[in-house]
């Protein structure tokens, strides 16, 4: 029983920092690669075979989806940190109490947000200035995606719990199942191959929904079969309730983290709203360039998630020396990995963009120009992401939110909108390195001189 109860439990408070961080971050990185590869392949099918208008439609829809995911990201992240700190302190009872309450809270929010998104997707697309020729396709695609939001959100919630417990391998395996299913189903449902109906752009959305639903069911079955150590067992179902103390902590700490993601995603919506006014070629180019920049951000996001989980457990165990070394190791890993990816895309700029866009025309020329101006700055983004992950793992959530707001809504968005009339889209592209530089400077100063180490997730 003791062996079963500890199934999946990983101690991030022991062993060499570099080796532990590397092997914990690796499945997270591979998972991020899989997700972006999945999105890229879907974009290739849509862009190459359904046209640039369809690709513009999915670009707008994906920005909305990121915005909705961001709206409940904070609750999941707060849960991850609470679980990690309690595991580091070897308090399994409190960890399960967090899991039970946050599961009920998270599922309720996901259903509400999915319903709102489904009902008002057309209004949101209109507000975003989606090109008129892309709106019918975008509505069809978006409504199907929103119908699957509860499955997607619950799936991601479980993944975050597992990573907070120190298990990054299990989420990767089931993400692999989801991605393979989506890749296989996409052409079948888009073109109506074999017994499958021809659904066009709606088929791309349906393939994602089906893949995520199947993977979620298999993941839940696996957790029960292996008697996972954080699984609520008979006699513990009373923990599936709205515990006021934990709800208060999730809201107090989770909302700022969620707002931080909303600040990021809303700035993305504001940017694509501006880019849309320059026509479908610009929108398609921006969508394709974003697909590539996503890959450069992957090491930073994977390492940031890993250092946050490691820091949370070590904070719970009171091992502050390991927290500091984890942060420095994470920055080094990010600099090397993100830098290599950026260099590769610089070398193969046209070839990479031609996966998503026609090899001739205005769109690919715009995309190449975007990459030349912005790719190097994502290395700076990684430094900020890693340090902010460590800072948030204590419960210090307000300053990272403020830094993000300043970088995006005080610097990037005004710079883009006010200077676009003079310099055109170049104002948008240059806003990326400028805002990333400001964010890194502010975050480093707070990490070095701020009082973030004194923060608490719960009083």
TrEMBL record:
Record-annotated membrane-spanning stretches: 21-44, 64-83, 103-122, 134-158, 170-193, 205-224, 254-275, 295-315, 327-348, 373-391, 398-415, 427-449
Subcellular location per the Swiss-Prot or TrEMBL entry: Cell membrane
Keywords from the UniProt entry: Cell membrane, Membrane, Transmembrane, Transmembrane helix, Transport
InterPro entries: MATE_fam, MdtK-like, Membrane_Transporter-Flippase
UniProt entry tagged with the keyword Translocase: no
Signal peptide start-end: none
Keyword Membrane attached: yes
GO molecular function annotation: antiporter activity; xenobiotic transmembrane transporter activity
Membrane topology: Multi-pass membrane protein
A GO-annotated cellular component: plasma membrane
Name of this chain's protein: MATE family efflux transporter
Organism: Brevibacillus fluminis
């Amino acid at each position: 029983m003791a062996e079963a109860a500890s199934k999946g439990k990983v101690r991030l408070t022991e062993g060499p920092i570099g080796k532990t961080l590397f092997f914990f971050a690796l499945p997270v990185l591979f998972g991020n690669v899989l997700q972006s590869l999945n999105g890229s392949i879907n974009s290739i099918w849509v862009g190459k075979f359904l046209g640039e208008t369809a690709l513009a439609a999915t670009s707008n829809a994906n920005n909305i989806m990121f915005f909705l995911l961001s709206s409940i990201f904070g609750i999941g992240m707060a849960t991850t940190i609470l679980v990690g700190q309690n595991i580091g302190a070897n308090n399994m009872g409190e960890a399960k109490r967090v899991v039970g309450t946050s599961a009920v809270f998270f599922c309720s929010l996901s259903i509400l947000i999915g319903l709102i998104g489904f009902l008002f997707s057309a209004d949101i697309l209109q507000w975003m200035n989606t090109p008129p020729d892309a709106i019918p396709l975008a509505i069809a695609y978006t409504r199907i995606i929103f119908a699957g939001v509860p499955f997607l959100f619950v799936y991601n919630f479980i993944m975050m719990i597992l990573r907070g417990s120190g298990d990054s391998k299990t989420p990767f395996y089931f993400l692999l199942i989801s991605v393979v299913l989506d890749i296989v189903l996409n052409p079948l449902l888009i073109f109506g191959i074999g017994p499958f109906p021809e659904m066009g752009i709606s088929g791309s959305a349906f393939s994602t929904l089906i893949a995520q639903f199947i993977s979620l069911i298999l993941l839940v079955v696996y957790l029960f079969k292996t008697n996972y150590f954080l699984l609520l067992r008979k006699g513990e179902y009373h923990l599936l309730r709205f515990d006021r103390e934990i709800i208060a902590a999730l809201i107090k700490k989770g909302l700022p983290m969620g707002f931080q993601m909303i600040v990021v995603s809303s700035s993305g919506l504001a940017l694509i709203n501006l880019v849309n006014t320059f026509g479908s070629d610009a929108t398609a180019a921006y969508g394709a360039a974003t697909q590539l920049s996503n890959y450069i951000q992957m090491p930073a996001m994977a390492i940031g998630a890993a250092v946050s989980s490691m820091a949370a457990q070590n904070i719970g165990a009171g091992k502050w020396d390991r927290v500091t070394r984890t942060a420095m190791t994470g920055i080094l890993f990010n600099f090397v990995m993100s830098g290599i990816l950026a260099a590769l895309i610089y070398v193969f700029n046209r070839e990479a963009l031609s996966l998503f866009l026609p090899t001739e025309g205005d769109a690919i020329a715009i995309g190449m120009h975007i990459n030349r101006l912005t790719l190097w700055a994502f290395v700076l983004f990684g430094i900020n992401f890693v340090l902010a992950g460590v800072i948030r793992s204590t419960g210090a959530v307000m300053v990272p939110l403020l830094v993000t707001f300043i970088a995006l809504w005080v610097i990037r968005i005004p710079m883009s909108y006010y200077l676009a009339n003079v310099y055109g889209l170049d104002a948008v592209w240059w806003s990326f390195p400028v805002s990333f530089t400001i964010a890194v400077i502010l975050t480093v100063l707070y990490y070095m001189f701020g009082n973030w180490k004194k923060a608490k997730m719960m009083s």
